[in-house]
Design a protein that fits this description.
alpha/beta; 9 helices; Rossmann fold; 5-stranded parallel β-sheet; globular
């Protein structure tokens, strides 16, 4: 999917995520501009002898290959029933360097195989069916000890108490700036 398709997808997103759109558009433009140039194939292949071609790789290209050792990306298990918000958050978190596994319901998350470590749960509290805290309680009963964040708007005092007792950080909507990605990084580092 190219830059224009991502931007079209973002324009279709929900009205409550306008601030996320602006941030995503800025990051997307930076990401697409900062790609290293593709080397010219004629620079890589120089024919000295017609029987045996020799390859010449520019030093800058060698340096890129040496530095680009693949490292596993931290995973984010994102659960939100709002498709537009889920897509926008997935795009934003991928730009921030996370591997995102999106789910549309708590039941879908509970049915999926989960990693043991190197991942963070991001759960919406208000989901159809089972809510975010109820899903987290079931995961904890299964001994899944991944760090968790709860995203919601206007959390009531009882929800704040329950989240504090469970060791869950609440991130309030609307999600401005890098609040969510910073919270994920802090949770993974702890």
């Amino acid at each position: 999917m190219g830059f224009d398709e991502y931007m079209n997808l973002l324009m279709l997103a929900h009205q409550n995520v306008d601030a996320v759109h602006i941030r995503l558009e800025i990051r997307a433009r930076k990401a697409f501009r900062s790609r290293p140039p593709i080397p010219d194939p004629t620079e890589l292949l120089q024919v000295k002898d017609r029987r045996r071609p020799s390859f010449k790789v520019p030093r800058s290209h060698l340096a890129l290959r040496i530095l680009s050792v693949p490292t596993p990306l931290p995973k984010v298990l994102l659960v939100d029933d709002d498709r537009a918000l889920r897509n926008a958050l997935t795009f934003s978190l991928e730009l921030d360097g996370f591997e995102v596994l999106p789910f549309d319901s708590a039941e879908a998350l509970l049915a999926a195989p989960l990693p043991d470590r190197g991942a963070c749960l991001v759960l919406d509290e208000r989901l159809p069916g089972m809510g975010g805290m109820a899903a987290l309680a079931q995961l904890r009963a299964r001994c899944v000890e991944l760090p968790a964040l709860l995203i919601t708007s206007n959390p009531v005092a009882s929800l704040r108490r329950a989240a504090a007792e469970a060791g869950v950080v609440i991130v309030e909507k609307p999600l401005f700036g890098d609040v969510l990605s910073d919270s994920i990084r802090r949770s993974l580092a702890a």
